[in-house]
Every structure is written in structure tokens, then in C-alpha cells.
Amino acid sequence: MSLNNIQHIVLVLSGKGGVGKSSVTTQLALGLSLQGHSVGVLDVDLTGPSIPRFFGAEGARVRQAPGGWLPVPVHEAQTRETRGGNNNSGGEGADSSGATIGALSCMSLGFILPSRGSAVVWRGPKKTAMVRQFLSDVLNTLDYLLIDTPPGTSDEHISLLETLLKDVQPPSRLSGAVVVTTPQAIAVSDVRKELNFCAKTGLRVLGVVENMAGFVCPHCSECTNVFSKGGGQAMAAEFEVPFLGRVPIDPAFVRLIEEGVRPSYPEGTMVGGREAEMRVKGNVDGEPSDTADKNAPLVQKYTSCSLYPVFEGIVTTLKQNVEAVS
């Protein structure tokens, strides 16, 4: 059973679609990797697998090995690059020399489907069987396994929890769940159902992330609260669970995922209501900054993103909450 080789298992949940759950999962994985941990991401959103797209691995395919499947590697363990004056310093330690980056891998139905546009028209029993096969047959040896789930409380959730509660020993290695919401009231009202689901099933809530809490303008560099503010924090207080933090919308992160371009910002960019000490990345060897290092690993380029210091704090708090229940 591959689950025996995983130290901490964390589910990423939301009661509503479109709140950026897969984006949060991706950045939690990158943040944990940048803190030196080996990380795996399991995508059990079977009808809308998006993790391959986020990690730029849509063309990858699952490989067989004795005893199961090998996950798709995103990057191997490596040393963090030092970019000196050209780096957008995303917080303390963002360009620290010699820091170790942990290996990152992922598994998704998207690696098995014949094409990106293939529809998954499956009934509940087949979904349940697929989730159980992912948990039993994917060969992982990890510090952290993040499980990206579909919205709501569907067959996938029930099968996932039944299998984890049965097979994970000791039970404390099933660390708990991160719940993602957006600030506005209509999203929070749906996500409350997910917190009730966690309470009914005995799944610990490690924290709430309030996503899309502001918009970082790429021109004037100001962060504006386009979807209101504070709904996720208020919900966390109501349910007496930890609040991990707010995550703004950053178009540069979207461009990083879609085009592989390292983020750069105007000086004085405001992130989440506080100033992030960012420097505009200049040209490298005379090449335009958006093409100079397009082939660099995603994890290296992510350190230049304004969301990196935000998630650095979220990941640090998450690890503390995980250790508290281990």
C-alpha cells in the first residue's frame, strides 16, 4: 500500500466550484517544495482534472512499474537558483543561496485520458473505483500528499475518506483538510457546507484560505478588493477553525501558468494590502525578460511571483497545524 510511505496527507476542499481550489493546491505544493519537502499532488476531480495544466504537464502519460503506477514528475530535488539583482525578491529568503527544493510529482486522470478535451461520463461506482485505485496503486514516498478534490460532497469525497480512514495507519498521518473559499457571501454560504461535512466525518480542518481576496493591477500595482473582503476569515471564526490567510488575484501568476513567463512587477506593488519589496526584473543577456528563462522549472520562476511570499506564510502556518495533530 503506497499510503504507508507518506508522512502527511492533506485534502484541499471547497463546497463551491470556481473558487480557485486547484490554484491553491498548486501553490501549496510549490510552497512546501520550496521549503525542502518532497510533495505529491493527487487530482481526484475526475470530471475536470486541471492539475496537469497547472504544472505544465498535459502531454505526460502515466508509466507502469512493478506494483503500481509511477506519478508524473514535475521537478526533481534541486538547489534554488540565485538571480541577484534581477530577481523579484518575493519576501525574505526568496533568493537564498543553497536552499534545497524538494521533489514534486503529481497524478491525475488527465494523464490517462486520450486527449485534453475527452469527457468523463462515469457513474458513481466507476468514480469510486478510480479514486481507490489512485490511492492504492500510485507509488509515492513523500513528506506531503495534497489531494485536490472536486467541489461539493460527492461520491469522490465519500470514497476518498472511506479509503483513507481505513488504510492510513496511524490515523494521525491523515492530517486534515484545507478549505478554500472566496470572500463574497454567496461563496461562503456554500463553503459552510464543506465545513459541516468535515465535522460530520471527523476530518480535521487545518485552516481556511480566502482566495481571490483582491486584484493586483499589473499597471498601477495596487491591490483592489473586487470581491469584497473578510468573508473567509469571518467563516473561520464562526466555526472556530484556523484562518490561513488571504490570496489576491495576480495576472502575472496566470501568465506564469499559461505561458511559462516569469512574473515581473512595477516597483511598489501592493499585495494583500501591504507593500511587497519587488524589483522589476531586467533583461538577461540582452533578451526580453519574458523569454530569457522560459525553460526554467516552474518552481524556480514561482519565487518571482507576488503570491510566493503570501503562500510562504500560509505554508508555514499549515505545517505548524499539521505538526500539532501528528
From TrEMBL:
Residues 77-96 are annotated as: Disordered. The keyword Metal-binding applies. GO terms for molecular function: 4 iron, 4 sulfur cluster binding; ATP binding; ATP-dependent FeS chaperone activity; metal ion binding. ATP binds at G15, K16, G17, G18, V19, G20, K21, S22. Component of the cytosolic iron-sulfur (Fe/S) protein assembly (CIA) machinery. Required for maturation of extramitochondrial Fe-S proteins. The NBP35-CFD1 heterotetramer forms a Fe-S scaffold complex, mediating the de novo assembly of an Fe-S cluster and its transfer to target apoproteins. PANTHER family: CYTOSOLIC FE-S CLUSTER ASSEMBLY FACTOR NUBP2, NUCLEOTIDE-BINDING PROTEIN NBP35 YEAST -RELATED. This is Cytosolic Fe-S cluster assembling factor cfd1. It comes from Lineolata rhizophorae.
